[in-house]
Write the structure tokens for this entry.
Amino acid sequence: MKSYLSDMDGVLVHGPRIVPGAEKFIRRLKDADAQYLVLTNNPIYTPRDLAHRLQITGMDIPPERIFTSAMATARFLQSQKPNGTAFVIGESGLTEAVHEVGYVITDHAPDYVVLGETHTYNFSQITKAIRLVAAGAHFIATNPDPSGPSENGIVPACGAMAALIESASGATPFFVGKPNPFMMRSALNYIGAHSENTVMIGDRMDTDIIAGIQAGLETVLVLTGIHQRADISRFPYQPSRIVDSVGDIEI
């Protein structure tokens, strides 16, 4: 039986609304006892927070079935330098993940500067990050997304803040989240799945689909999010399948 990795926003939900057919898809996964994991580049929330958010929309996905770019970032830090130190800009989703792998969060000569996303970026923190990176701390960022949605329109996201720090410090960040294959490999290891038998479902060609292809996964593009059929031909790579909605995917 195949395992499934699925993006969250644009595939399963649109903000507070369930994508039509998504609930049935999750039910089919559970009924078939299939391995699955919901992936998100959003590092702000913990899996428990996101499970609660999904439950409010009417979708029952337990925290252990959710994997964030913050979790992948923490695993990257652990693999590079176990029990190190980091200066972290982010919310509880990131700080909790970093603590869980045995890292100390500090602004005193840290091994890494780790940039995530926050509801309110603090200029003094950004300045501190620039100075620490310029002084030799390695620069890691959770995800390359330059902007994200809000109720009032787009807001700057991790990629935009990373560009600011890079411009001022001269150091290029290492982005852990999609489309980095490291996040995909971390997710596969998290559920004990193999790339040859796993499907990646997403709504974006430039993050979900390319990440799946680079990790050797079968890919399915759903048309309920960012990219539509008219957009696909301009990319030099193609998904394995295209479906109108995640609800059209048979297990």
